[in-house]
Every structure is written in structure tokens, then in C-alpha cells.
Amino acid sequence: MFRLFILFILISFGALPAQTPVPPEIRTELDRRNIDETELRTRLLARGIDIDNVAPEDLPALRAEIEAVVAELEAENSTTEPTAVVDSLPPAEVPSIQTPGTPVEGEATVAQDGFEDEPIYGHSIFRDGSLIVQSGGADVRPPESYRLGTGDVLVVSIFGRSQADLQFTIGSDGYIRPDRMPRIYLKGLALAEARTLLERRFGQYYIFGPGEFALTISEARSITVNVFGELVQSGSYTLSALNTAFNALVAAGGPTDLGSVRQIKLIRAGEEVRLLDVYAYLADPSYAEDFSLQQNDVVFVPAIENIVTASGAIRRPGRYELLPQEGLEALLQYAGGTTAGAVDGRARVVRIANGREQILDFRRSEQSGDPQASGLAFPVLADGDLVEILSVEDPTENSVSVDG
Fold first, then answer.
1. 28, 29, 268, 339 - which has most CB atoms within 10 Å?
2. What is the rounded average pLDDT for all residues in the chain?
3. What is the pTM of this model?
4. Which residues contact 206 (CB under 8 A, 6 or more apart)?
């Protein structure tokens, strides 16, 4: 039938004067196959075939081309856009992730469902817009610890008895060259150090008092940094030098669900400079200023080694990455502490060891603050532990009782 249809097109189109409407038989067949006549002519023209002006004796030689165009159009028109399928289950049957209830002291321990799909605490700052990649323009104010380098554009403003607005670019040799003054080496100096040096040097040639000298960066240099490991998109990125290692991680999409947020390495000249801990940043954002970047720095994100789930009478239930020697005290700190209904520091740990589930009840010692489990030392939490902070039964929160 398909070959007969092609032959029908060859005979009918070739026999018609140019731009003459096609016979009803062909139009019906085109409609049945969901092929637009104009689109068919256009596709044939794109292949160099003007079907209205082809000599009848040339039509058999074009048969293969016409078959290909017709098949192409049929395939395209038979493809439909995918649509989202919404389950029509009754509300009670729609599955959902529920935050585990607060366990009550004395109740049997229940495995904590619902956390497996939650991101590790700390991952979200790279995904929710909390951090952005700095552009390096004049609207961005660098920290005083920012290290100057080749390509940085500086503006010196003097507004005392002398008036001046001067702009300098740090050259490849690390110097700026003010007019009628000796050159000044600035490469590698922190912004605060450079300001002190320049105020002293310019004070020898200009007249101004305290508070009448300013140094700003109008345009920061660009650097290339390499971000590798468990990241959404590892690679090399060209960024403004105003960015820190945190911003470089944002440029790479942030750590994957397997990526550590506690042991990220900043490597310079092949040697590790220091470890980056996102939890320290969440406690004090100024922490990021200690992770400025230089040309060809490497930021490496290893895989997570130790994930612990916290639930119960705790302010921020969820999944946390703990360092190898961290225990309950550290977990409680990262999770915001316990709620008012917590039972005097009592907790329960569900642990899988040697293929068997273990349940450990322990409390924090009043004297030392170290956890104790069944009278034995309980120094650290292990990967996969489920920690339940116990509470009194049905506590009434945010209430005050007045008697008498």
C-alpha cells in the first residue's frame, strides 16, 4: 500500500500544473497519514526536488527520495509529547515521607523510615541559591583578607587637601606604577595590608588626613580553578578571584548525594592547604573568607564515609555527616540540640553490626559529657547509626503552669 501511495504521488503531482491543488484522492490519503501537503512540498524542496516542475521521465529516479520524506513525516507526526501521569489513588493511599514520631522512653524501638531520600545536612546550600558565583565587578566588596594578584584593578581615592581618583592595574611583575612616584609591589598582599602600605606611600606625595584615603577594587582578576570528586559537574572553571572555594563548589553544581560536606580538600601546588567543613560555615559564614582561591587551585570532594540519622526529641531531625571521631555531642550540636520534651539526655541507637541489629540505650554523663552505653564507653557514632532522642510521653510544649 505504501509503494502504491508513493506511485500515486509521483503520477498525480507530476501530471499537475505547478501549484495546482492536489486531487481529493491524494488529499484524503495525506490526511489519513497525517501529512501536511505544504510540509511535504517544503521537505522535498529542501532535498532539491520541486515536484511541481519535475519532468515525468525523471520521476522514477526520485522515488527513493520521496519515499524517505513521506516516511520521515509519518514518523514525526506519530510521535506525541510525553505527558505527566498522575496517580489517582485516594488521598489515604498516596505514599508520602513522614517525619518519624518522637520515641517515648520504654517503647520498643522502631526503624526510622522516611530519611533515606533526604539530602545530607549541608548539601542544600549549594542547591537552593544560598551561595552564588561572584562576578568580580565593582558592586562586590571583597573581604579584607582578599589577596591581590596580577590583573586586579585598584582605585585610590584621596579627598583631603589633595584631591585624586587614581586607577591602577597590578602588572605581571606584581607592581603598580603611580605617576611621579616609585613603583609599589602589591602582589600577594591582603587588601588590608595593601591599604596600609599605599596610605603611607601616597602620604609622602599627597596631603590628606586620617579617614581621607580609600582603596577599593573596581575589577577583580580572573583565575582558573579545578573542581573534582563527587560533584554534579566536575571540571575546570574560570572565576573571579573574589570567589572562595565555596563559590567554586556552587559553579560545579555542589556535591552529589554521595559527596562529603565535612572533608573537602583545598589543594594548592600539589599540596593540601586545608580541609573545608560546611558545618563550620553554617555556624559562622565568615569561615568562608579563609578559603580564598588562587590560580590553578584544586578543590576535591571525597565520598561521604559516615552518615548518622537523628530523630526524636531533637530540633532538626535528619541525616548528618560525622567525622570519624565525632559522637552524640557533635550530632546534637549540628541538629540544634534537643527539644523541651527530651528525657534528661537519654538516647537510643539502632546499629547494624555483623549483619545483626543492635539496640544501645545510653545517656550523656553529667560530669564528663561523654555518652555511656550499658555502663560501657560509647565514644563515637558509626556509619548508618539511627539515633533516637527519647522524650517524655505526650509532652506539652510552650506551656506554663501557675498554681496557688
1. 29
2. 78
3. 0.61
4. 158, 160, 162, 164
